[in-house]
Amino acid sequence: MTIEGVLIKTAAMAIAAVALGGCVWLKTAPEEANGEAASPPILAPLNGAPDVVDAEDWRERRAPLLRELFQSYVYGYFPPPSKASIIDQRVVSENAFNGAARVEELMVKAPNAEGEVQFGVVLITPTNVPGPLPVIIAQNFCGNHNAVPLNGVTRSKNAPGMCDGSWAEPIIIRILGEHIQTAPLEKIIERGYAYAAVYPGDIVPDKDETAQSALAAFHTTQDKMKRWGAIGAWAWGVSRVVDVLETLDRFDADKIAVYGHSRLGKSALVAAAYDERIDIVLAHQSGTGGATLTRSKAGESLKQITTSYPHWFAPIYAAYAGREGDLPIDQHMLIALIAPRPVLLGNARRDVWSDPVGAFRAAEGADPVYELFGGNGLDQPNLVDINYDADIAFHMRPGGHGVNGADWEAFLSFLDAQTDTGN
Ligand code: GCU
Predict the structure, then answer these.
(1) E strand or H helix at 211, and its extent?
(2) Per-residue model confidence as pLDDT tens digits over 318-353
(3) Does the beta carbon of 278 lie inside 6 Å of ligand 1?
(4) What is the DSSP letter of 40?
(5) Backbone phi and psi for residue 110, each to the nearest 5 degrees, phi listed first
(6) H/E element holding 366?
């Protein structure tokens, strides 16, 4: 289903929910996590490998094994390592946001098996804050021109037309929140963060028909069942943005955060799980294939997600529908691959499709790995009392699926706490 399809579906669900009052969609997540603990246990023997005894063991043996298994069963194989470079750099505005920031556009190229893929990055750099600056790589749904809606920002080709002034746009924003397209950029700048907007549809379009040829251009493996899906490719795109940000000394290479909502929350987690240069993760409402346990009975099932979005995953993943317990891994292991780096998991009470309870249980399941590293892991008593100083912060707000001011307030509080930034 395309992004337009999802937006229409979400809007229809919201209208139906209001009309039917008290229907399933309106059920709210409880404060305590119920259901079974994450399995397999994170440090237990796996695939013939003995249990994990310490952080070095995790880093040297278990993490590489898990990275292999997630490629083999869920996201498909990534292409061989490559680095992106900047082929064009252009100033959009020297004094945007009332003089608080410089805005530039980078054109980036990264090699693939058939040549190269090119994509734009819009960089917002606060000018009144001493550097080097922490930077948020923010994946967007509606194109860079909607993520940073300033004159002179190039329109992302492939961006859904629905985001560009259609009749449905105000309804979408009403339902999915005021920051579904555009983050609170003034606030982000004011708090001392640089912002790098990237549109993942430039790397692989979010449509089954067109995604397949874009994915195939990378030749990841001969095994069709294990070829990579769009989530892996979007995560790869985030890493290519890291390649170029690391060459710009105005950014602090130890404070690179990645943000994504929903499907892009999935790719944010995958990016950080595979790329240790990413220091902090903001994964909002990432749901199935993201932070939520695949074995969880709540929310979107493996069957539903692989039927609606076959291009997101390796084809083999769909074969586990109805027998999720046969998978050697589950998503708490993806979160644990980010350890010891901090991760915020964003949720909303009525967003039961994204299964907040399953995500909390995944966070609990990942916790022992953070502790192996001497961290505090998930350190909050329930789904609502967030601890911004913890390695895994679980944010829960009222309302449904989408991105609003309360979400960004939480993201920035977490970044402030984890980077000692904050203005
Ligand atoms: C659909 C899909 C989810 C996804 C969401 C989104 O609802 O089922 O898995 O997270 O779209 O990206 O908004």
Answers:
(1) helix 208-216
(2) 999 999 999 999 999 999 999 999 999 999 999 999
(3) no
(4) S
(5) -140, 135
(6) helix 356-372
